[in-house]
Amino acid sequence: MNQPTDAYRPPADPSDEPSKAKKGNRVWAIIGLVAAFAVGLILVRQYLDLDILAEQASRLRDFYANHPLLTYLIAFLIYVLVTGLSIPGATVLSLIYAWFFGFTKGVILISFASTTGATVAFLISRYLFRDWIQGRFGDRLKIINEAFDREGNFYLFLMRLIPAFPFFVVNAVMGLTKIKATTFWWVSQLGMLGGTMVYVYAGSRIPDLMTLKEQGVKAVFEPSQLLQITIAFALLGVFPIVAKKLAARFSRPHFVHEGEK
Description:
- It is a single chain.
- This protein is mainly alpha-helical.
- The protein contains 11 helices and no strands.
């Protein structure tokens, strides 16, 4: 008797395995990211509490005097962790750094650390979500992708310049576009520099951390000043748009109609 033969099975598509492996890696990456966010949030709330820092202010000053480079490196990594994982508290951390390091060192530290953290968040968004978003909504996003291909640097600079756009939202959204990571880094560096200098200057004038603890942002900014700063940056962000529209309008060639000579 002839043995029954197995039903025909088409050969497996070799591209399926890498795709499944990639999806599995992304799932584990998301789990790891959530765990890192939770741990980071606990550590920030536990060790960056203003009461604790105020009590340990003299010891922190002594440690900084004896180990300046190590202190700077630790502060840099903490800021990258907070901004890269989008942990709440970056504004208060900026004010603390400004008070501790002073204006010049504070600007250099916060400027590069915030841009590095933003780039980390940008790359996380790109790795975890861009392929899925583009694959699912590619047709609807075609116009947006084309606009970013042409003027992505300009849009990013405006979003960095205007405080109305939340920091973590810009990082996540730009990660879904096709803008290069290096371009994202240097445009963000320039766009955030003005706001960084304003906050560091204000933070460097804080008399002590207990004042910051008791008064919060009011310790460095009055409500009217915050409103003025927001309006100023908004106008600064609108200015390039207006200038670009005017330049495009006046640069158009003026054609002479027939009979008009």
